[in-house]
Amino acid sequence: MALPMLRGCYRFPSTLSFTRLFSNERIILNWSGKTRSPPSSPAGAAAAVRPYSSERGRKKQTHKIVMVGIPNPFIWFRTRIYYFLIRTYFDKEFSIEEFAEGSKQAFSHVSRLLSQSQFEALEGLVAKDLIGKLEEKCNLLPLSYKQALSADPEEIMYTTPGDVGIYYDDNGRKFVSILMRFWYLTSAHLPDDTMEGTRIFQVAIGEEVETKRLLTANYEFQREFTKGVTPDWTITRIEHSKLLD
C-alpha cells in the first residue's frame, strides 16, 4: 500500500548521550556516552576529528583523521522543520543529537553481528524481510569482506543524518524514518581493484604501521508512532558501499 510521504535531507555533525533505541523481546539495549563535536552551521564547514596516538620511547606521536562536511543552507533549514514536526506531533522528547549517538552504537552492534553471520541475533533490531536478504548476500561474501562489515565504535570517524521521512497510511498509522550515514576505518585486507574510490590511511601503532581503509555505510531506522504500538526503532535498510549494496 502506497504511503503519503514527506521527505527531507541534510548533513551536519551531531553527537550526544543516548539511552534508548531498540528493544529485543525483554532485552533492551541501552547506550550512553559523550563525545565532542564542533558547532554546526548552516553556511559553514563542519569537521569531525579523531586522533590516533602511539608511543615510541618517550616521544608521543598523534595522528588525526579529519572528516569535513559542508551543509546546504536550504536543506539544513528544511530538515529542522521536520524535526519540529516530529517533536510536535509524534515525540516531544525527540532529539536528533541523541538519536545520532544511539544510531552510531546500533550501527556498530548490528554490523558486528553481520560480520559474524549471527542473523538470528538481528531479530527485533532489523526488519524481518531484510534479515533474509542480508543472509543471502553475506553468505556470498569472501571472509575479508565480512570482516570489513564490522565497525568498531572507536573506528567510526563520522556520523551524519541523511534523509528524513514522515509517513501516513490509509489506516491512520504513522511512521518516521531517518537515514544515517557512517564513515569508519577497517584493517581488513581488501583487494584494491574492487575498492576503487575508497581512502587508505597509514596508522602508527607502537613501532608498527597499520594500513586502514575508510569505508561508508547507510542504515535507515524506522519507528511507528501509532498509539498503542511499542516505541521501537527498527533498521529497514542496510548498505555498506563496495561490500553490501
Automatic annotation (TrEMBL):
Composition bias type Low complexity, residue spans: 42-54
GO terms of molecular function: ribosome binding
One of the GO biological process terms: protein insertion into mitochondrial inner membrane from matrix
GO CC terms: mitochondrial inner membrane
Region (Disordered): 33-56
Name by which UniProt lists this protein: Matrix AAA peptidase interacting protein 1
